[in-house]
Amino acid sequence: MKENKKAGLDPITFIYGVGAAIVLIGAMFKFLGWQFANELFIIGLSVEAVVFLISAFERKEEDKDYNWENVFPQLHNGSPSSNGQAPTAEFQNAIQQFSSTLGNLNSQLSEMGQTVESIKQEMEANAKDSQNMHEKLSEFNQLMDHYNQNMKQINQKYQEILN
Fold first, then answer.
1. How many CB atoms lie within 10 A of CB 19?
2. Is 43 within 8 Å of 25 (Cβ atoms)?
3. Which residues have a Cβ under 8 Å from the Cβ of 23 and sit 6 or more positions away?
4. Helices marked H in 57-86 — which ranges?
5. Angle at alpha carbon of residue 11, lines to 5 and 13, rounded to 5°
6. How far is it, in rounded angstroms, from Cα 11 to Cα 47?
7. Does the model's pTM come out above 0.85?
8. What integer pLDDT is reported at residue 85 of this predicted model?
């Protein structure tokens, strides 16, 4: 097993950070109109350029592939897991749980579909009732118009008799 080494200060990263800080301070000087802003920009960007140039040739150690068995002990073939079951039994339990969840979800979706269909049928029935009500109101309005015309004629005849 690999020993954990305490990470030290990486000089390239340190110089890069200092260069970035100088660039930011130069930007602040520039925004505020202070003296030496251009010089700070030149120094900061030069430091950054040198760091980028050096880091282009820097070699890093290759990281060893991650040991997934340490994260997922179920990946060890044949070794029992923490609850005493073989990994295949745990996998089968997980699959059964997943299948059960999918079954519940499917039945709930089916119920939701039936509810939506019921709502649709109720809305269609309400639309038909509304159409019938509209037709009846139209007939009633026509009858009222006819009644008003007759009343006007009666009032005209009555006025003729009185005069």
1. 20
2. no
3. 40, 41, 44, 45, 48
4. 68-71
5. 90
6. 13
7. no
8. 53
